[in-house]
C-alpha cells in the first residue's frame, strides 16, 4: 500500500517530514491540487500547460481549435515509475517537471488560465518529489488481465 494511503488510514508514521512538507507545497503555493485532485490525483480535464509542441493534442479529434495544445491531466498514482514525463516524454525527471511548472513553462498566448508559476527552492522540489513518491505502491501485486485468444 502506498505511503499516502497508509497515512489516510491513520498511520501517522507513513510519511516522512520531507513528504509532509511536499504535500503542503502541493496543496499550497504550488497549487498542484487545482488540476491533480481526487483519489487518483487528476481532474481528467484538458489543459495547455506551456509545452513547445506542434501536437494539436485535444484539438485533433474531433477538430477543435479551442482545444489545440491541451492535454489531459495525468493521474499521479504510481507516476514515479513512469518516466519520462509529459505528453511527449520530453522531461526525463520529476525535478524537470516541477521546474517546468514553477517557471510556467514556455510563455504562450493560449495558456490555460489558472496555471501560474511559483517560487521554489531545490529543497522544496526534493520535498515535493518525496510527497509524490508516497503515491506509488510497489507492494501490491495486481495481476495482469487474461486476454482472450484470437
Describe, in short, the structure shown.
With 150 residues, the chain is mainly α.
SSE layout and pairing:
Blueprint lengths: L2 H6 L8 H11 L18 E2 L23 E2 L21 H9 L19 H12 L17
Antiparallel strand pairs: 1-2
Helix pairs in contact: 2-4, 3-4
What does this structure look like?
The chain has 150 residues and is mainly α. It has one domain: Cytochrome Bc1 Complex, Chain D, domain 2 (Orthogonal Bundle). Helix content is 25%, strand content 3%. The chain has helices at residues 3-8, 17-27, 94-102, 122-133, and strands at residues 46-47, 71-72. It has a two-stranded antiparallel ribbon with strand order 1-2. The chain is globular, with a radius of gyration of 17 Å. The mean pLDDT is 88.
Residue share in helix: 25-40%
Roughly how many Å apart are the termini? Answer: 35 Å
Tell me the major beta sheet.
2 strands, antiparallel
Class computed from helices, strands and strand pairing: mainly alpha
Residue stretches low in confidence (pLDDT < 50, at least 5 long) are none
Amino acid at each position: 500500500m502506498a505511503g499516502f494511503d497508509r497515512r489516510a488510514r491513520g498511520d501517522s508514521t507513513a510519511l516522512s517530514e520531507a513528504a509532509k512538507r511536499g504535500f503542503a507545497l502541493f496543496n499550497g503555493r504550488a497549487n498542484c491540487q487545482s488540476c491533480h485532485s481526487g483519489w487518483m490525483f487528476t481532474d481528467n480535464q484538458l489543459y495547455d500547460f506551456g509545452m513547445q509542441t506542434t501536437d494539436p493534442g485535444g484539438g485533433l479529434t474531433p477538430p477543435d481549435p479551442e482545444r489545440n495544445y491541451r492535454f489531459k491531466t495525468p493521474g499521479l498514482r504510481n507516476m514515479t515509475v513512469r518516466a519520462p514525463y509529459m505528453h511527449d516524454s520530453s522531461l526525463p525527471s520529476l525535478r524537470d517537471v516541477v521546474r517546468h511548472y514553477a517557471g510556467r513553462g514556455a510563455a504562450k498566448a493560449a495558456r490555460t488560465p489558472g496555471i501560474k508559476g511559483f517560487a521554489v527552492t531545490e529543497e522544496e522540489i526534493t520535498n515535493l518529489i518525496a510527497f509524490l513518491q508516497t503515491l506509488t505502491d510497489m507492494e501490491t501485486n495486481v495481476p495482469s488481465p487474461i486476454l482472450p485468444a484470437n
